[in-house]
Amino acid sequence: MAEPRPAWWVERPSLEYQHAFDLCAVEVHRVQGPVAVFASRPFFAREVLKRLTGCEAALVPIGSWGSSREDVGGLLGPEADAPVVRMAECARLQVRSVVWVEPQQQGGERALDHIRRILPPDGKVCVIVSGWLARFLPEWRQVERRLAEPPAGLWWTFQRLRQAGLRVETLHGFHGLSSILWSYAWRGLARLGRDDWADRCHFQMRAQYAVSGLQAFTTPVGVGIARWQ
Predict the structure, then answer these.
(1) What is the pTM of this model?
(2) Domain boundaries, given as residue ranges, for the chain
């Protein structure tokens, strides 16, 4: 009989997070070489690591869930196997890139300090941050499933990146306000039987699903790509 899965387990991430995880994986594979994954929850670690097959990835747990290596190994699952390195020991890592998933206000500056120390001059940091609309995603709807307590947010994270000497080259977001409004119009028109107009709204929703720049601050999930200034 299969063991029961933990309460945090999400069978399939929402589309917003899927896009964010996939984008980070593409960026890491472009850089090649070892990568460190700083993750604030097992859900993030599992989804990122299983997309980094073939990379020399190491996991640096952030927060209370990574208090012991034994607990971490049991939470990830076989598809996300990676060596676990405590944050206090991550100075020995030699990496080409870093994935930082869901920075937290509490402990976020400490994590960023470690990232800054191990990132080489030509390195890249991929940061996945949730916005205020993330509260409507399945992963966030129940209090016991909150993914980071409290999340740092886009503004806090990118301000700290700049203060640390890192420049955000690109900022991407998924399913922002314009896409959400088009989705409501699509569903409403479909209920009214106006499939012709519903199809147009559906097309606009998909066309505006991925945004970049300042529009990313209106999305549930954003991804920033940063390098040294």
Answers:
(1) 0.86
(2) 15-176+210-228
Single-letter code of the amino acid located at 12 = R
Distance CA 175, CA 74 (A): 33
CA 52/CA 31 separation, integer angstroms? 12
Secondary structure (DSSP) of 68-121 = -HHHHHHHH-GGG---B--GGGGGG---SEEEEES-BTTTHHHHHHHHHHH--T
CATH class of 15-176+210-228: alpha beta
Of the candidates 74, 81, 122, the one whose C-alpha atom is nearest the C-alpha of residue 98 is 122
Quote the DSSP letter at residue 209. Answer: S
Q: How far apart are CA 136 and CA 142, in angstroms?
A: 10
In whole angstroms, what separates CA 130 from the centre of its chain?
Answer: 7
Q: Each residue's pLDDT tens digit in the chain (229 positions)?
A: 444 444 444 567 888 999 999 999 999 999 989 999 999 888 888 899 999 988 899 999 887 776 655 566 666 776 677 888 888 888 889 999 999 999 988 888 899 999 999 999 999 999 999 888 888 888 777 544 555 467 788 888 989 999 999 999 999 999 988 888 988 898 999 999 998 898 998 899 889 889 998 888 889 999 999 999 8
Whether omega before 34 lies within 30 degrees of 0, making that bond cis, reads: no
Q: Is 151 helix (H, G, I), strand (E, B) or coil?
A: strand
